[in-house]
Each structure stands twice: as C-alpha cells, then as structure tokens.
Amino acid sequence: MNDAVVLPVSCENETRLVYRKVILRLLPYLFLAYALNTIDRLNVSFAKLRMAEDIALSDAAYGIGAGIFYLGYILFEVPSNMYLQRIGARATLARIMVLWGLVTVGTAFVTSANQLIVARFLLGIAEAGFFPGVILYLTYWFPAALRARITAVFLMAAMIAGIISGPLAGWIMTHLDGWMGLRDWQVLFVVEGIPAMLLGVFGWFWLVDKPAQARWLSEREKQLLASALEQARGADTEHASLAQVLRNPRVYLAGLVFFCLYSGSNTVSYWMPTLIRGFGIHDLKTIGLVASLPYLLALIGMYLLARSSDKHLERRWHVAVTVLVSAGCFALLGPVQGHLLFSLTLMTLGAAAALAALSLFWTIPPALLSPSAAAVGIAVISCIGGIAGVVSQIVVGAIKTATGSLYMAFDVIAVVLVVGALVLLLAIPARQLLERPRS
C-alpha cells in the first residue's frame, strides 16, 4: 500500500505559488552573486593581456596564478560548508562576497608575478565554499524534481557573466585607462571588485537561512513548503560526519567526473582570450566580443539540457553526450589551425558544451548522496574538482610556454573529458540516480 500523501489539487496550486514566490525572492540575488563571482574570476584572463609586460608575467607563471586560486579554494571549501551548517547561509555568503571583493580590488596593486600568485591564492581562500554553499542552500528550498531547472537558472548566471565579462573588460580597459592614475588592467580589478562587497552587505539583510525563518512567507506558505520538501527528502534527517562521507565511494566517483568536466570548462575560462589572440585577433574589444560567444551558446544549451533532463528524469547520458561533443571540438582545434572561421566555430561549440554540462552535473550529487551526507559530500566533490583547477592551469601554462601553442594542451583536455564521460556512464549506475516526479 502506498503511504505517500496525495495533496489535493488546491494544495498543489498553492504549493506552486509558494515556489514561485521563493524563486522570485532568492534566485535574482543568487543569480547576481554568481554572475559577479564569475566576472571576478575571469577578469584576470583579460587583465593578463596587458599586465604581463608590467609585472613580467610569463604564461607559466600565469598558469600557476590561475591554478593556485583553486588550492586556496580547496583547502577551505569543506570547512566553509561545514561552518555554513552552524552559522547559516546568510552569514556565510555575505562574508564570502565581502572578502572576495576586497581581494579583487587589492589585486590591482600587485607589482610582480609572485604577488599575483599570492593574490590569487587569497582569492581562493576568500571564495571557498560559495558555490557548494549555494548548491546546498538550494536543497533547503527546492525538491529534486525542480532542482535541475533551478540549478540551471542559477548557473546561467555564469553564462550571462561570460557573455558580459569580455565586452565589459574590453570597454573598461579601453575607456578607463588612467582613471585615478591606474593602468587599464588595474582599473579592471577595482571597478569589478567593489560590487561584490556591496552585494555581500546587502545579502546580510536580504537572505534567510531556511524557509521556517522567512518573514516574507505566511505560516500557511511555510507549512506547504515544509510538507513538499518532507515528501521529497524522506525521513533521513541525521547528520553525516566528514569521516562517514569520506568512506563513501560514490563521493570519489562523482568527484572524478567533476574533475574531468571542470578541467575542460575551467581551461576555457582562463585561456580563451589568449587562444583568441592566437587566432590573429588583437583588438581588446574584438577579443571580448568573441569570448562572449561560447557563453551565449552555453546559455541556450543549459536551458535545453535542463528541460530535457527534467522531463525524462535522466542525467547521465545528457551530461556524457554533451561532454563528448566538447572533447571532439577541442581535439579538432589543432588540425584546423590557420582557418579562422573553423577555429572560432570549434572553440565556441566546444567551450559551450563544456560549460553547459557543468550545470546538469550538479543535479547528480544531491541524487547520489543521502540528505544527511549532501552538505559535506557536495563540498568534497567540489574540492576534488577544484584540484583540476590547480592541475589543468599549471599544465596548460607549462605546455604553452614550452611549445608556444595551446593546441596540444587542448588535446590533453579532450582526453580528460572523454575519461569523465566514461566514468560517469560505467561507474555510476542509473539506478543510483532514480528520482520520482513530483506529484
């Protein structure tokens, strides 16, 4: 006999209206926060085009700087997510945004490659826990049947930021050069760091940790939300320790998949302006505009993937096929070098596929792990993927310095992406991700 509670149609309609209210309250803020987060990560890839001469920055040193960010992130990510459970998402996210804004502004005043490396390490520490914290925060408000679309909307912020960041960086560096006596790349860091601090302060007053604390929900709305979440989550309310999570092989399998996927999307994010300049395009505004194309295509892809995945309640093949498309495009970059149109097409499609796959991937860990293990498990998975940020950037920088070309580096990334798709399909059975549609 089925013991599940079947809500009357009127209750379903009320619950739908409550979710709409929650979405309108939380998602615009989280969307803007993640957009600023992405912009403040990507701006170093555009600043590099000008700052390299000023601070004697080689490609290898840039790779270390881009990668060491993730070392700081990894070291503090799990503690940050565990601390979030103690002090709440509001305090955690506000603190993170204020700190990363301060470090971004401070990066404008580095005078050597070593100082840039230190600044990037500090930025990683400041940002630690932001992304997995938001992913966890969403599980407090939305059931699995809605989470792919909600996560996709949240991650679309990164795509919007990618579309905006290139033209914005080109405009700032072209038109604000000399503002307050600063060089173009220095102005970029200052102008793009201040909004994060302001949004962090605002978040302290705007966010609430859980539905029960939301003054903007009525008691009836809180009850409907709690009922819907309880049905979706089941009875697992115990807290899993870090040791228990670390003994769970599912965490490492998901982490390995994320490592492979992130190697591709992360490399694209930090080396795209340099790759575009290698195609023979040197104008900053043009580079910025071209760099926005993959994010525009990824934005469309994320929506279509999420819609299809939620409709069929299928995650693995949606992610794997998208990743394999990206791998194929990256592998073909070398053979078509010298052909501007083909190179731009492959770069755009490959980067878009790598970026779009990430949003859908993040619907897998909450389904793979029990609710009690999700908080720490998501942070551990994110940490494992973060290692890719360290390794891939250093490897790409070293290959670029040794060969003078990025094509061999993208061949390596293509192989890593294929490995990720195979691990996902072969090592994570579909039965472990079974989800039921919401009544």
From TrEMBL:
A cellular component term (GO) from this record? membrane
Annotated TM spans = 22-40, 60-80, 92-111, 117-140, 152-173, 185-208, 251-272, 284-305, 317-334, 340-362, 374-399, 405-428
Q: Which Pfam families match?
A: MFS_1 (PF07690)
* UniProt subcellular location: Membrane
Keyword entries, A-Z: Aromatic hydrocarbons catabolism, Membrane, Transmembrane, Transmembrane helix, Transport
Q: Which SUPFAM superfamilies match?
A: MFS general substrate transporter (SSF103473)
> Domain Major facilitator superfamily (MFS) profile: where?
26-432
Gene Ontology molecular functions: transmembrane transporter activity
What is the name of the protein in this document?
Answer: MFS transporter
The membrane-topology field of this record reads: Multi-pass membrane protein
